[in-house]
Amino acid sequence: MQLVDQTKVKSRMQTRLKQNKILKGVFFGTTIFALVVLVILLYRILTQGIGYLDLQFFQNFASRFPEKAGIKAAFFGSLWLMAVIAPVSLILGVGTAIYLEEYAKKNRFTTFIQINISNLAGVPSIVFGLLGLTVFVRMLEMGRSVLAGGLTMSLLILPIIVVAAQEAVRSVPKELREASYAMGATKWQTIRRVVLPASIPGILTGGILALSRAIGETAPLLMIGALTFVAYLPENLLSGFTVMPIQIFNWTSRPQTEFHDVAAAGIIVLLAMLLIMNSIAVLIRNKFSKRL
Amino acid sequence: MKTIMDEKKVVKAPRPEEKKKEGNTVYSIENFNLWYGKDQALKDIKFNIPEKQVTAIIGPSGCGKSTFIKALNRMVEMVPIVKMSGDINYRGKNIFDNKYKVEDLRTKVGMVFQKPNPFPKSIYENVVYGPKIHGIKNKKVLDEIVEKSLKGAALWEEVKDRLNENAYGLSGGQQQRLCIARCLAIEPDVILMDEPTSALDPISTLKVEELVQELKKEFSIIIVTHNMQQAARISDKTAFFLNGEVVEYSDTNQLFSNPTDKRTEDYITGRFG
């Protein structure tokens, strides 16, 4: 008495194999879809914007005339903003991650903090803009400055950096910490000499990715009132400023179609900057992971 | 069956250095209990560990031998749910005393782990890790420490030309001896070894065993092993742990040839475990 009917098994075989093939096609299709969209996007922007992309574009400030319009103020504004965001968010983020992973005892309080950090990562950026407007611009009277913008953006990406750094710190093998403690090292010595060197690639990768999110953000800066027409470079931390996404937004909302091409040129610059930052992140990861 | 015969042969080989020193004790453990949460892992442990001898801790898996050795340098406290009672005295001082800093204890009591765990740094940097932690910066002194420690761990000849290469390029056995060298570099008093050869091949194991014999001239060694032959070959004293208790503790010779407790006899003759 056979429980498995061999003829039926055989007749089902074809259907099963066909199903297998179809699903392979479906998954391939989903992957290609994303790729095609990206290619179309890049193609359109490149063909539209390449004409305006010359040295002058980097040397000129914003202008009423499309042929004279340049991205200088926005480009340097973005760099200034980076200069504030990078140190502030990295120091705060890595510090928090180390405290939570290495020092804090696992109890309700730390679980509470942990959940809230994850929640913060999901808060819409416009809300951070409101916070920045209230706290930095108004309460601390920083005005619509690079400093206020940078601090707001730092808060925005802080949760991302904390989570990335925590994961990097957690991935350092327990055995290495044990080896260090067993030789009489203090906690700080172990962190400095064992944990940080081993987790720095993860921390930097996460940090750079978070920073590249920050240079693409517009909403919080609009909220705190970054300017849209700037014909000067920031001189210090309290100067007014604009950034590339805002400048691009400004151009696209003008009626003259020439400005849309200028906007495309701006997008090329912004995308190039993002690509460069992401490649640096990849390079760092590869360089360090080889050493381990 | 054959192995038991071998054991006895090894045990009965003359050991001239034995007996002549019934010297100082490094550790005296008094009524020591340890719990992981609600599970009691060690029950009423009570014995003394002698100076400059090899003390082996044997017993089946889960009998608490690793827990015990990790209590000796308080590494066991890295598990957050551990609770302890009773005393462990190191050189007459209670290691759980508030005034006794754990960093101080671990400077004198080194440890070699089950799995070789060198740092992802050069061989040189691995050895000088401990000395640097304790504030030694003089390059000349550090160089000397590296040579002395690597020679002490019988690794110098194999690595002296590639001290700046990454330690992960070494074989498992070499890595373990590097960990021993790293431990020697801070010139400890006691070396704890938690199944140091369980991840090694037989030849590397033999090298480490020979090394232990050399090291006991200068250091007091406490070694956890679940290899009974190894305990019989290299140790002077043996403690047999079972379910968190010390069933029997005596000279290795005595314990293996003439155990007083039935459970010890069953274990060493391979009837369980």
Automatic annotation (TrEMBL), chain A:
One Gene Ontology cellular component annotation held by this UniProt entry: plasma membrane
Q: Which PROSITE patterns match?
A: ABC_TM1
One annotated GO molecular function: phosphate transmembrane transporter activity
Which GO annotations describe the biological process of this protein? phosphate ion transmembrane transport
Coiled coil residues, start to end: none
Q: What is its main location?
A: membrane
Its subcellular locations are: Cell membrane
Q: Which InterPro entries match?
A: MetI-like, MetI-like_sf, Phosphate_PstA
Task: Outline the extent of the ABC transmembrane type-1 domain.
Answer: 75-281
Q: Which residues cross the membrane?
A: 21-46, 73-100, 120-140, 146-165, 262-284
Q: Which UniProt keywords apply?
A: Cell membrane, Membrane, Transmembrane, Transmembrane helix, Transport
CDD domains the UniProt entry points to: TM_PBP2 (cd06261)
This protein's membrane topology, according to the annotation, is: Multi-pass membrane protein
Q: Which family does it belong to?
A: Belongs to the binding-protein-dependent transport system permease family. CysTW subfamily.
Kindly provide the name given to this protein in its UniProt entry.
Answer: Phosphate transport system permease protein PstA
